[in-house]
Specification:
The protein has 102 residues and is mostly helical. It contains 3 helices and no strands.
C-alpha cells in the first residue's frame, strides 16, 4: 500500500487555515471578555447607585424632610466639620462595638 503524502504546499495551507481558526477563536474570546467586563461594570454601577439612594433615604428619614439640591453643600460642610473636629462621622460609621453610638 502506497503512503499518500501531502505536498508541502498543502501542509502549509492546512497550517494557515488552523492559524486563522485560532485567530478567530481568540477574537471571539476577547469580545466575550469585554462583554463580561461591561456587564460587571454595569452591575457595580447599579450597586453603587442603590447604595447612594439608600444613604440619601436614611438621611431624609433622620431629618424627616426631603433633601433638596440646595441643601447638599451644607450637608457636605457639616460632615467635613464633624470630621475636622474629631472624626465623629468616621467613628460613628466604624463597625466595632465600642464605637457604637446607640
Amino acid at each position: 500500500m502506497a503512503k499518500s503524502t501531502r505536498t508541502l504546499e498543502e501542509r502549509i495551507q492546512e497550517k494557515n487555515l488552523r492559524a486563522q481558526k485560532l485567530i478567530e477563536q481568540a477574537k471571539k474570546a476577547e469580545a466575550q471578555a469585554k462583554q463580561l467586563a461591561k456587564r460587571q461594570q454595569a452591575e457595580e454601577r447599579k450597586k453603587r447607585t442603590h447604595r447612594l439612594i439608600e444613604v440619601g433615604a436614611a438621611v431624609e428619614s433622620v431629618l424627616d424632610a426631603p433633601i433638596e439640591e440646595d441643601d447638599l453643600p451644607r450637608l457636605i460642610a457639616f460632615l467635613k466639620k464633624q470630621e475636622a473636629n474629631g472624626k465623629f462621622f468616621t467613628k460613628a460609621m466604624q463597625k466595632s462595638p465600642d464605637t457604637d453610638m446607640e
